[in-house]
Write a structure and sequence with these properties.
415 residues, mainly alpha, Hypothetical protein af1432, 2 domains, two-stranded antiparallel sheet, 21 helices, 4% strand, globular, binds fe (ii) ion
């Protein structure tokens, strides 16, 4: 059998034997005619030599997939393998996430982006003053946070309206319209790619008819709660990166759920925005402990939430969920946030599975970060609960990249 090195592959070549990756994954059958996309998959899976039967058929139709150079693909693969703690993925959904992440990283590298490295999370913790007492137990942390004080009045009224079965869409539109900053941002969202509505949505009332009263209030709640990020100032956290991660999870979760249950878009968007809020409370009240946990997680190549559970006895998801409960957020939101790490393995429903999947995807595709560099595994069980084919992941990330920067800029300009 004749073997060709992966860097010499060309589209049109025909395989003379089955192609199997070093981790045992079946890639392509004997007789397959290679396309550029196949060649990239072969590079993703780290195959070095490929059995080939005949030279490319130059008469064949050219395929127009984007191709990254072998060195870019190799660098991207190394970065993602490191994010996977050096272990190649072991089950189908993680294989797909791995592949999507390598392609996304290759595209960033070829655009000149510098990928995040684990050290970035440590650099901000160097000047924490010694001595001040740290709060590391759940009750003390809950007592120390008074997020509601930083939320605008309209938040409480929307939250009441959301709980009352009697409140009408017009009433909700009325409430939102009274807060000019909130209305402006809701209108921008209604006109963004998130909804993709033709024509202009120029009033809150129109936005209400477009997305529904309850959906609008959930969205308004999520948006007004983003002021919590401004209320919590933590100087050793890269807030820009944290904020970007939150927006990325919101956008990815929203795209994934729109394929299954479009009525849950706003809920997933709000949940994504707020899912790691518990970590901000930890960074604020226990910076030295968190700095140590980040260093330990990095040394052991573990996701940070594993260390939190081991050392603190709870993770930031549980803390965030409990905080939101205290602040009277709807149970549907607080319980999603409470379990976003635990239910990576045992999800209750499609919404929690989608949130967990979006968090893993956002983390490995480098859209900011909330302190954890190593990828947490998404179980096959969880992906089953999301009830989506894994082929949607690639498309979702492509779509998300455009929307993330749109929504990030939209919030940036909202002060
Ligand atoms: Fe999290
Ligand atoms: Fe997260």
């Amino acid at each position: 059998m004749e073997y060709v090195s992966v860097s010499s592959l060309e589209s049109g070549m025909v395989l003379s034997g089955d192609l199997i990756a070093p981790n045992g994954r079946f890639i392509l059958p004997k007789g397959a005619r290679l396309t550029q996309k196949n060649i990239m998959s072969i590079k993703i899976w780290g195959v070095s030599r490929v059995p080939v039967a005949k030279p490319p058929d130059r008469e064949g139709a050219p395929d127009s997939d984007i191709l990254f150079s072998s060195s870019v693909m190799e660098e991207a693969r190394e970065i993602i393998l490191e994010r996977f703690s050096g272990n190649p993925p072991q089950w189908p959904v993680m294989e797909e996430i791995f592949s999507v992440a390598v392609m996304d990283t290759a595209s960033r590298l070829s655009e000149g982006d510098v990928p995040l490295r684990p050290e970035i999370f440590n650099s901000h913790f160097s000047d924490i003053p010694e001595g001040s007492a740290e709060k590391t137990d759940m009750e003390a942390l809950l007592g120390a946070e008074n997020g509601l004080a930083t939320l605008p009045d309209v938040y409480a009224r929307i939250s009441d309206a959301l709980r009352s079965p009697k409140s009408s869409a017009t009433h909700i539109a009325d409430l939102v319209s009274k807060d000019t900053a909130l209305s402006a941002i809701i209108l921008k969202l209604a006109n963004s790619a998130m909804y993709g509505v033709p024509g202009k949505v120029d009033s809150i009332l129109r936005a209400t008819t477009l997305i529904g009263g309850r959906a609008l209030s959930t969205l308004a709640l999520g948006v007004s709660a983003t002021r919590l990020f401004r209320g919590i100032s933590v100087k050793w956290v890269n807030m820009e990166s944290f904020w970007k991660h939150s927006i990325s999870v919101a956008v990815i979760a929203q795209i994934l759920v729109s394929r299954k249950n479009p009525r849950a878009i706003e809920q997933l968007f709000a949940a994504g925005m707020l899912h790691d809020i518990g970590r901000l409370a930890l960074f604020r009240h226990a910076p030295r402990t968190m700095s140590r946990l980040i260093a330990d997680a990095s040394a052991e190549k573990l996701p940070l939430d594993f260390m939190e559970r081991e050392v603190l006895g709870f993770d930031h998801g549980e803390l965030g969920g409990r905080l939101l409960e205290r602040w009277n957020f709807p149970l549907s939101l607080s319980s999603l946030i409470m379990s976003h790490h635990k239910e990576r393995e045992r999800p209750k429903n499609c919404a929690s599975a989608v949130l967990a999947a979006a968090d893993v995807l956002a983390s490995v595709t480098d859209e900011g970060g909330s302190g954890s560099w190593y990828a947490a595994p998404l179980s096959e069980e969880t992906w089953k609960a999301a009830d989506l084919p894994s082929s949607v992941l690639e498309m979702t990330i492509r779509q998300a990249r455009r929307q993330i920067s749109e929504i990030y800029n939209l919030f940036q300009g909202s002060d």
